[in-house]
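Quick one: structure for this chain?
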Amino acid sequence: MRNIKCVIAAGGLGTRLKDFRNSPTKMLLEVNGTPMINMQINQLQSWGLEDFTIITNPEFEKMTKDVTAKEFTNVNLKYSVQETPKGISHALLQAEKYLSEDDITVFVLGDNFFENNPLSGMNLDNSSFDSGCYIFTHEVNNPKEFGVAELDNLGKVISIEEKPDKPKSNNAIVGVYVFDGSVINKIKTLKPSARGEYEITDLCNIYIKEKNCMNVPLKGWWIDAGTPDRIEELESNLL
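Got it. Here's what it folds into:
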């Protein structure tokens, strides 16, 4: 059986949530009375994941450890610090010491929540997934605000663009990815983007060039809980 590791990007400060509910940082903000990071771990456990690495930031490392370790006493939790915010791919790179080339990595942005398990039916723990990556998309009316995937007639990914002026589709890329064991080595080949970050889009584009990036369309709602309105929407959907 293949080792499936889950990495949670939980280092963002959540500037759009500043002063909302007086939380010191986004991932500790309470959603229906539960810190967001704990809600995320609960969601991922419901998907069948068991081995977690939480990427946090230096300022809130101890608080994040205290909140999660207190709640999940029998869960395999590991932690790594992203000292400087250099992008989503850079956040994943911080889990390097916990990942091997034999592992499959499920990478989740900590503020993304889903009505249904996007991994359902993928059978990641058998030989059906030998190499490549999976992205997950959701049709939206405002694709200019997201990373957008262009797909061929068979649903394979042709290209990905970050917040394009002229989107080639309405397929917004959501905050969960599945990567093969080459992901860390691929990240190390990336160069910073114009905004100085190591982009998840650029990482996926490497797989696209290898013709090894697959798409899974989401069923049900998806919420990127990065604003007060989206937090309240998430709470409403969870009632």
